[in-house]
């Protein structure tokens, strides 16, 4: 046994912690001490194989060996079996990099997540960290914008607007103050890629935002983070402090003379703040009421100044693009969807987690091959893609490719890349009712179709579920959905009909119900 | 969740003054007050309005818009249970009805004893390991009826 401590990795990602990673880490420290085995415990992000969490890795001469899912009471037997040398055990999964689930992926944005200690600047630099920012400083504003445009990167928040065009608008605007705002209000159910990235590689987001600041001449930035993510909040705050101390943020980014000051701001439990204008209102300290567009935020954004508002994953894609070149990024993907998409697989699925792949893979490959079907073992009945405002698809529709335009053509959407699997116990009329209920709770209230329509929608669905005059009420439901789609101010009211109509059109049998017996109480 | 200090107007004024120079200071101030006292007392409204040169209506409007901000002291223990789609797919609604059936607890009940409350939250970002809950700032995955009862302090066991 050599004197060098053995490096053991236990994730500090919130999902891993949610199933006991902290207790595992403590047990490993205790056990190693009791056995007098020198170890260095590294708290990394998650590799994204969430069904294997807590997944412990041991560094060996043959690479890192994975064990999972480990609970605290397994730790003694792991040491007994010699896991500190990568030996066999019932939880032994083999070399991490060789695991099929991971090997199949194309990790550009998530290359470091799960590999490194998220708060180690040295580890970040050792794996190409800040190379994109250094390149950006050499290129200068206009050339950075051209590079981002050429990469074909589209906003990963859901709308898919070309990032380079947004950046160019802000670049070309003249103002004494411009802002960079990161939309980290990842409220869509079924999505957690932003969270994993912020917890697992926060310097990447900081680097991406700094590149944006240099590109358009902005000196202040905010990360608007949802309050439901306390772990990400702590990690980001510590990362910003470290980056500021290291001269990456502050008065002179990497000594370039460009100033960029970055702060995290917490939301307060309002889903609507994921809509960019509502987010800006919230950052200004107001009720998060959606603004009418135009003016677009790129020209009149935060405090009326030109502002880039991008999702976490959009900023996080930029350092790779500048390091490896726009063409290298654009070589991934299909059609007008270029690059990679971090897909999040959740709900009733056996092997859920984060899968980063070039656009174009089919839903079926993701759910069946990688996900292994449902957790309950029952047949898949419905899959919701793109969050609470995304469509429900049937098990027969899963051959569709993950691509913005292909999904849009079937009246579905990719959104932020969340996939939620339901088994055959799901009641699609209740899911449709929930879509309205959620909209009614989370509507900002500015426009009538959304504010009133959502409540009327709950009422109509209650009548349909009770079997009252189904044909008439379904006609009302279709009419209401058309109105909300056509007349709502933003995506909240405008897209709530998408899950509702897809449920109605794809699962009509759930809407055709016999009358409930009266006086059930 | 326990251990908040009682509302103290002078201390609240001190917190407000410390943050008033931030751009868009309202939400940071409200969070800081709630972190300190567990809620934002209505007495804070004129304090914030004065410090930020806003109308009381604007401050009240902001407080009332967001689900997070409380205007009365919180229960001693709050468990936030995710009830969004990914957790629905794994039976979070059965947990809600189980609480009602086995423990006579209504989720989002405003008339609680002040001891504890179970509140709805939409998505904790743990969608592959649901159903999920957040208690004392800790995220908990794969929550079942027993674990939820334990989080609520209804059983003494510590798994």
Describe this structure in words.
The complex is a heterodimer of chains A (521) and B (159). With 521 residues, chain A is α/β, with parallel strands linked by helices. Chain A folds into four domains: 6-103, Glutaredoxin (3-Layer(aba) Sandwich), CATH 3.40.30; 129-330, NADH-ubiquinone oxidoreductase 51kDa subunit (Rossmann fold, 3-Layer(aba) Sandwich), CATH 3.40.50.11540; 333-423, Ubiquitin-like (UB roll) (Roll); 428-510, NADH-ubiquinone oxidoreductase 51kDa subunit, iron-sulphur binding domain (de novo design (two linked rop proteins)), CATH 1.20.1440.230. Helices cover 40% and strands 15% of the residues of chain A. Chain A contains 21 helices and 16 strands. Chain A has helices spanning 14-18, 21-34, 75-81, 100-103, 121-126, 131-139, 141-151, 163-172, 193-200, 202-216, 230-245, 276-283, 312-324, 326-330, 363-370, 404-409, 428-442, 448-465, 470-487, 491-495, 497-506, and strands at residues 6-9, 39-42, 56-60, 63-67, 92-95, 179-184, 220-225, 261-266, 307-311, 333-334, 337-338, 340-347, 353-358, 380-385, 392-394, 418-423. In chain A, strand 3 and strand 4 form a beta hairpin. The termini of chain A are far apart. With 159 residues, chain B is α+β, with helices and mostly antiparallel strands. Chain B has two domains: 9-65, no CATH class; 77-151, 3-Layer(aba) Sandwich (Glutaredoxin). Chain B is built from seven helices and four strands, in the order ααααβααβββα. Chain B has helices at residues 9-19, 26-37, 44-52, 56-65, 85-88, 92-103, 145-151, and strands at residues 77-82, 116-121, 133-135, 138-140. Chain B has a four-stranded mixed β-sheet, with no helix packed on it. In chain B, strand 3 (133-135) and strand 4 (138-140) form a beta hairpin. In chain B, helix 1 packs antiparallel against helix 2, helix 1 packs parallel to helix 3 and helix 3 crosses helix 4. Chain B is elongated and about 50 Å long.
């Amino acid at each position: 046994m050599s004197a060098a401590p053995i490096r053991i990795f236990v994730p500090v990602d919130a999902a891993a912690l949610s199933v006991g990673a902290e207790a595992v880490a403590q047990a490993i420290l205790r056990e190693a001490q009791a056995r007098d085995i020198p170890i260095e415990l590294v708290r990394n992000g998650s590799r994204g194989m969430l069904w294997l969490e807590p997944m412990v890795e041991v560094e060996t001469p043959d690479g890192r060996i994975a064990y999972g899912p480990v609970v605290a009471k397994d730790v003694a037997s792991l040491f007994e079996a010699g896991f500190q040398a990568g030996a066999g055990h019932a939880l032994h999964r083999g070399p991490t990099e060789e695991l099929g689930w991971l090997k199949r992926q194309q990790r550009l944005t998530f290359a470091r997540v799960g590999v490194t200690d998220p708060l180690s600047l040295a580890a970040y630099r050792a794996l190409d960290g800040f190379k994109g920012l250094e390149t950006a400083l050499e290129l200068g504003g206009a050339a950075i914008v051209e590079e981002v445009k050429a990469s074909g990167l589209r906003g990963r928040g859901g709308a898919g607007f070309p990032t380079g065009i947004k950046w160019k608008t802000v670049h070309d605007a003249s103002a004494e103050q411009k802002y960079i705002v990161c939309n980290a209000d990842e409220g869509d159910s079924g999505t957690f890629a932003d969270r994993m990235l912020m917890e697992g590689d926060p310097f990447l987001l900081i680097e991406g935002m700094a590149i944006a600041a240099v590109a358009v001449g902005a000196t202040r930035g905010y990360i608007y983070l949802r309050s439901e993510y306390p772990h990400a909040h702590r990690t980001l705050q510590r990362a910003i402090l470290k980056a500021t101390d290291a001269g990456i943020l502050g008065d002179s980014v990497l000594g370039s003379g460009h100033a960029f000051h970055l702060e995290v701001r917490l939301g307060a439990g309002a889903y609507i703040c994921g809509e960019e204008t509502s987010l800006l209102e919230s950052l200004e300290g107001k009720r998060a009421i959606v603004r009418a567009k135009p003016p677009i935020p790129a020209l009149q954004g935060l405090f009326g100044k030109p502002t880039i508002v991008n999702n976490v994953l959009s900023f996080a894609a930029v350092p790779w693009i500048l390091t490896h070149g726009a063409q290298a990024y654009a070589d991934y993907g299909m059609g007008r969807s270029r690059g990679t998409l971090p897909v999040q697989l959740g709900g009733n699925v056996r092997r859920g987690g984060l899968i980063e792949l070039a656009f174009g893979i089919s839903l079926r490959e993701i759910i069946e091959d990688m996900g292994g079907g449902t957790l309950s073992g029952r047949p898949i009945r419905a899959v919701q893609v793109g969050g609470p405002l995304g469509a429900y698809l049937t098990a027969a529709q899963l051959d569709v490719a993950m691509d913005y335009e292909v999904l849009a053509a079937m009246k579905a959407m990719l959104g932020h890349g969340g996939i939620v699997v339901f088994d055959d116990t799901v009641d699609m009329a209740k899911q449709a009712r929930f879509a309205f209920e959620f909209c009614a709770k989370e509507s900002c209230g500015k426009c009538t179709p959304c504010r009133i329509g959502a409540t009327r929608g709950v009422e109509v669905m209650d009548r349909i579920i009770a079997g009252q005059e189904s044909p008439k009420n379904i006609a009302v439901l279709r009419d209401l959905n058309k109105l909300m789609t056509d007349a709502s101010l933003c995506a909240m009211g405008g897209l709530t009909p998408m899950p509702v109509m897809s449920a109605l059109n794809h699962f009509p049998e759930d809407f055709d119900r016999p009358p409930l017996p009266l006086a059930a109480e | 969740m326990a251990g908040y200090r009682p509302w103290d107007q002078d201390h609240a004024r001190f917190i407000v003054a410390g943050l008033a120079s931030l751009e868009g200071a309202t939400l940071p101030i409200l969070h800081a007050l709630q972190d300190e006292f567990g809620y934002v007392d209505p007495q804070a409204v004129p304090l914030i309005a004065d410090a930020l040169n806003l109308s009381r209506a604007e401050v009240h409007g902001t407080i009332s818009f967001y689900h997070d901000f409380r205007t009365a002291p919180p229960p001693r223990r709050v468990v936030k249970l995710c009830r969004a789609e990914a957790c629905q797919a794994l039976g979070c609604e059965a947990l809600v009805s189980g609480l009602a059936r086995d423990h006579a607890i209504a989720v989002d009940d405003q008339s609680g004893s002040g001891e504890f409350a179970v509140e709805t939250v939409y998505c904790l970002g743990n969608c592959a390991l649901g159903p999920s809950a957040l208690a004392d700032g800790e995220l908990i995955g794969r929550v079942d009826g027993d674990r939820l009862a334990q989080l609520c302090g209804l059983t003494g066991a510590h798994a």
